[in-house]
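Quarterly update from the structural biology core.
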Amino acid sequence: MANLTSPYAAGVTEAASELPPLGRTHQIDSRRGLGYVMAIAGALAFSVNGSVSKVTLESVVDSLSLVLLRCAGATVGFFLLILLIEPRRLRVGRHELPLLLVYGVIGIALVQWLYFIAIARLPVGVALLLEFTAPVLVALWARFVQHQNLGRSVWLALGLALAGLTLVAQVWQGFSLDVIGVVAGLGAALSLATYYIAGKQAMTSRDTLSLAFWAFVIATAFWTVVHPWWTVPWDLMNESVALPGGLDSTTVPVWGLITWIIVMGTVIPFLLVLGALRHLPVTTAGIVGMVEPVLAGVVAWLWLDETLTFTQIVGAIVVLVGIVVAQLATN
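Predicted structure, tokenized:
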């Protein structure tokens, strides 16, 4: 997930001076194309992970055990990467700890757990849609806490998000969605907004990879206290799970699903998004990342037979427009 905010352009003169020479245009276009591919691939990996996580949660693994294992596995993955790249990145100053604690507990630990609860009770696409309203919350934070002048954009984004969510929930039918799932999804949005805001501040003095490592270390420690390792159902890890949909003739062990969630659903897509940011502006990468709820809904429809009504689809599109408006407003 990319940081939502980036510095404003310094002005037309400076922007013009940074234009590449004519001979480098093809090279820049190629790098930008690679950035788009990496951003979309990362979104697709996160999207598939939503359905894999739902299948795992419907087996023998509870949400607390799954989030603990995911955080711990990702910690090991990021640790090995930093050792290969530059071990000195692991150093952390005492003054960084308060912000890292907020980032790790709220922005990493809670957002994953709340998301797992949401996808267990709601269609995967709807759960992600609720979580991805975080940019609207960031825009509200920028307007009322940081006193940034965002104009009417923040109100347009909020209005679109609320109108779209009203259509998705179909409130005129007595609120057709699971209440606990909706609360968890909105809680995940609040945690994700914290992830963006705290992450931006933390990245002023720390690179993204080491920041992710320490955030997952803290998240793992937090869940170890809340849900100790001996409470994880280790004896059931070799249980076979029949995959749903067109893969119903295939069975995989529970540990295989969890390994996928850690590697293909956390470490790999994070690195893809990180790589995309080397070739794309932050705003562009963030907007491309908005395809994740759409892709997640498609994957869940093809694999888990989760469907949305026409009205819900229209509502989802309205929400996505509101998210893009919020994304643009805070950049």
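Residues 29-329 form one domain.
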